[in-house]
TrEMBL record:
The keyword Plastid does not apply. Mg(2+) binds at D18, E205. PANTHER family: DEHYDRODOLICHYL DIPHOSPHATE SYNTHASE 2, DEHYDRODOLICHYL DIPHOSPHATE SYNTHASE FAMILY MEMBER. Homodimer. This is Ditrans,polycis-undecaprenyl-diphosphate synthase ((2E,6E)-farnesyl-diphosphate specific).
């Protein structure tokens, strides 16, 4: 993408960062080293998104299902997450980016929960972009958790059940104050959503690539945005209606 004025930028980009272990096997690296390599890919992607004016970037770091992985890998991922947060706080302040986390924090260590909260509070005032890291996250959990909170509001007479519709639900789910996901990218060659941002990505354009996450580049992100711009987003309407509106 050479000139953002010639393109319609997605407001919200989401990335399933897949392929770290396969990268390590391909390069004959030690177990876990693929995750370390993958951690370093995020910085240029974040900087590019901020530079061109993308409002929100959400990345899938650790899913609800990833708790089932070997313990050594879970421990390594938690350690890398701590390192990532500590490294990102000064970067977020430098570039004035708000850092958030979504997911079920109850399964995380108190130390990690405190660090996440600290990072969110330190960067909450920034408006240039929002970077969200999904940790211990699952789309089905997110939807169920939102339903539970709305049900509690009804039970406590803070909300009438007839007020609940898709708009209200969308405002109360994770990232409800951000634009819906416009472009969802999955690296690593698999063609599935893996329980990621199911509600928020209802009308997202999907981009799948064989590229393993540690090899994903800004240039390929630019290509994904070019592909996004080549698609007609109809949101249930016909092509003729879209052309008339234009």
């Amino acid at each position: 993408m050479t000139n953002s004025e010639e393109h319609h930028l997605p407001k919200h980009v989401a990335i399933i960062m897949d392929g770290n272990n396969r990268f390590a096997k391909k390069k004959q690296l030690e177990k876990g080293q693929g995750h370390r390599e993958g951690k370093n890919v995020l910085d240029p992607i974040v900087e590019y998104c901020r530079e061109v004016g993308i409002e929100a970037l959400t990345v899938f770091a650790f899913s609800s299902e990833n708790w089932n992985r070997p313990q050594y890998e879970v421990d390594l991922l938690m350690s890398l997450l701590k390192d990532t947060i500590n490294e990102q706080i000064p970067r977020m302040e430098k570039f004035e980016i708000s850092l958030r986390f979504i997911g079920d924090r109850s399964r995380l260590s108190p130390e990690l929960q405190d660090l996440m909260l600290h990072a969110e509070q330190r960067t909450a005032k920034f408006r240039n972009m929002t970077l969200t890291i999904a940790v211990s996250y699952g789309g089905m959990w997110d939807i169920a958790d939102t339903a539970k909170r709305l049900a509690m509001m009804v039970k406590e007479h803070k909300l009438d059940v007839n007020q609940i519709d898709s708009d209200m639900f969308g405002q109360n789910i994770s990232l409800g104050d951000l634009a819906p996901v416009d472009l969802l990218i999955r690296t690593g060659g698999d063609y599935r959503l893996s329980n990621f941002l199911l509600w928020q990505s209802a009308y997202a354009e999907l981009y799948f690539t064989q590229t393993l996450w540690p090899e994903f580049t800004v240039e390929e992100l630019e290509h994904a945005i070019d592909v996004f711009n080549g698609r007609e987003r109809r949101f249930g309407k016909t092509s003729e209606q879209i052309q008339q509106e234009k």
